[in-house]
Write a structure and sequence with these properties.
By secondary structure, the chain is of the alpha/beta class. It contains six helices and seven strands. Strands 3-2-1-4-5-6-7 form a seven-stranded parallel sheet, with helices on both faces. The protein is globular and about 50 Å long. One of its GO terms (molecular function) is oxidoreductase activity.
Amino acid sequence: MKDLKNKVAYITGGTKGIGFAVAQTLLNQGMRVAISGRSQKSVDQALKDFNNDAVLGIVSDVSKMTDEKNAVSKIIEKWGQLDVVLANAGVGNFAPIDKMTDEEWHQMINTNLNGVFHTLKASVEALKKTEGYYITLASLAGTNFFAQGAGYNASKFGVVGFTQAAMLDLRQYGIKVSTIMPGSVATHFNHNEPDEKDAWKIQPEDIGELVLDLLQMNERTLPSKIEVRPSRPDKK
């Protein structure tokens, strides 16, 4: 097992759901973790829930390059390094393409696709120094299209393609790059209220375990694209 103690991670969309669960998993390994969210309120609540001095909370909108550069600067200023980045922030607007608004389309592309680009561009030089790891949180919607999902599919297909191409570009620097593509996860995504009805779904902490598995992988091996789905789908 690799010793991850005092390594530094940055997780976008880390105030709840998958991002929060991954952050907790990494904190349990002795890592220092920066999380970002779009509002001060959400960041403050997450910091209260973590109640851990090894967490840095940052307000950042990943659709804005300046925000992401500022976030990485704060992390380097505080801890002097950056070892792991999880581009997790995402939104979903689902509607038939003839009903989807310009605003809904651009929100998904700007957050889900442009956001992962901004996060990588802001952090890549720091990751070169540590031969770090860049992970994107895509979706099975990045390979499986569905009705009312044109905008979301477009963004997640883009994330998968972007990440795989970036992996080929960056491995020459010793940077590992992977994309994780979950199916149904028990989170608040798309206005869901997770409860016992979601017991069959992937749980956020399961993605945390998966991220940890990637970080513990032998340096010679790179799982570059990981599809993950519930083992027993809900019977409808």
